[in-house]
């Protein structure tokens, strides 16, 4: 390990961090370095790993401090029994790489996690030292996201919140049974205890800021978590209920879902195949329904099949609408916002446009077609001045009429 140079370490530890999905940055406070003070800036719109239409890569430097670990979680490629090449950064190396990449406009912030080395407290100290050095020694004003360790001393975790924009504590798996089977050294009680402490610290920080303008900001972008999907026997209904529990109890900013990916030299207790990526996508859609569309967890769960799984061929809102047809059709000229949000094909922007437009005139089907992307999808579920679905809503094969059409993939598509 000591013979590796910084470039080689970066190649190993950046690749090892690719399995962590929780790296968006929305919700932080704006900072900049105008006037010649400090290095870097943040924007409230957020940072993620993506390519803009003009080819720009908008990204975080996403790395591990080390991929060595004293734990032996079956689903993790960096577990102690895994036969992978190991590397470890010093705290100063992470600081210098972050600053060098930022000054070259390669990145917009740092996402830092780590395997557990020596002890949870020692590892947490190293992570906090990176953030402290960037903030205090180099006046770095860019975005920092730290993955914290539930078993670490609460005082160390609080220090992470003083230097980082966002902190995250992974629950790893949706159920305690899955955690016991696949990660016996981890305990959901300790994980939730750490999340509860972080919630309290964030609330205390907000109270202090309201009373004293000079009080330091504490994790202004909140806390998040991540669940692995498909590594254990938990179904989508279990995952939706678990996510709702985490949102309600710990005021999380986001719950991320990561489809299990087979790893080299896998444990015998792991499934042989990864779950469909569409399953991960449907869980994100169900998460959106609870957070932005007013759906209760029980309502999202009712859209699942007898095995507790969300359908892969249609989105959860459409699945719910097909199961509860008595809620439709909805009159777009009279219905309140909460009912319009339940219409398949209506997003929050479309609903806002409808409510704004109907103040001035009665809306017809042509008006709806200009306010939403797919009028064919919404027609069975709405009433306008010139449209009523009559028998269409009760049609026996309505699913086939509104579900996306299967398309033949092009072998030579770019």
Automatic annotation (TrEMBL):
CDD domains listed in its UniProt record: Radical_SAM (cd01335)
Domain of life: Bacteria
GO molecular-function terms, A-Z: catalytic activity; iron-sulfur cluster binding; metal ion binding
Gene3D superfamilies: Aldolase class I
Keywords linked to the UniProt accession: Iron, Iron-sulfur, Metal-binding, S-adenosyl-L-methionine
Domain Elp3/MiaA/NifB-like radical SAM core positions: 59-286
The keyword Metal-binding is annotated on this UniProt entry: yes
Needed cofactors: [4Fe-4S] cluster
The name this protein goes by in its record: Putative DNA modification/repair radical SAM protein
């Amino acid at each position: 390990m000591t013979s590796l140079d910084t470039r080689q370490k970066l190649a190993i530890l950046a690749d090892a961090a690719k399995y962590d999905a929780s790296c968006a940055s929305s919700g932080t406070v704006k900072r900049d370095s105008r006037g010649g003070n400090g290095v870097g800036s943040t924007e409230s719109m957020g940072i993620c790993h993506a390519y803009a239409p003009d080819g720009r890569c908008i990204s975080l430097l996403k790395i591990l401090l080390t991929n060595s670990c004293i734990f032996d979680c079956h689903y993790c490629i960096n577990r102690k029994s895994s036969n992978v090449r190991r590397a470890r950064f010093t705290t100063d190396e992470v600081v210098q790489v972050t600053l060098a990449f930022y000054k070259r406009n390669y990145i917009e912030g740092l996402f830092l996690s780590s395997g557990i080395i020596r002890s949870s407290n020692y590892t947490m100290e190293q992570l906090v030292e990176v953030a402290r050095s960037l903030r205090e020694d180099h006046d770095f004003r860019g975005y920092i996201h730290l993955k914290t360790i539930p078993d670490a001393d609460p005082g160390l975790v609080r220090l992470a919140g003083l230097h980082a924009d966002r902190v995250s504590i992974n629950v790893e798996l949706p159920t305690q049974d899955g955690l016991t089977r696949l990660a016996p050294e981890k305990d959901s009680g300790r994980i939730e205890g750490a999340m509860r402490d972080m919630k309290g610290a964030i609330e205390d920080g907000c109270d202090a800021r309201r009373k004293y303008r000079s009080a330091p900001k504490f994790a202004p972008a909140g806390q998040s978590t991540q669940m692995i999907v498909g590594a254990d026997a938990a179904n989508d209904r279990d995952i939706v209920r678990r996510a709702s529990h985490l949102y309600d109890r710990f005021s999380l900013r986001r719950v991320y879902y990561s489809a299990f990916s087979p790893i080299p030299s896998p444990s015998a207790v792991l499934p042989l195949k990864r779950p469909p990526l569409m399953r991960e996508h449907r869980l994100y859609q169900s998460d959106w329904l609870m957070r932005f569309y007013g759906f209760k967890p029980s309502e999202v769960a009712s859209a699942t099949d007898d095995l507790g799984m969300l359908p892969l061929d249609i989105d959860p809102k459409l699945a719910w609408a097909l199961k509860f047809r008595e809620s439709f059709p909805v009159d777009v000229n009279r219905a309140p916002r909460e009912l319009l949000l339940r219409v398949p094909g209506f997003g929050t922007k479309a609903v806002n446009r409808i409510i704004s437009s109907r103040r001035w005139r009665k809306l017809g089907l042509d008006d709806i077609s200009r306010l939403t992307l797919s009028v064919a999808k919404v027609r069975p579920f709405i009433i306008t001045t010139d449209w009523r679905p009559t028998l269409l809503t009760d049609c026996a094969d309505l699913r086939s009429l509104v579900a996306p059409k299967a398309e033949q993939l092009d072998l030579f598509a770019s």
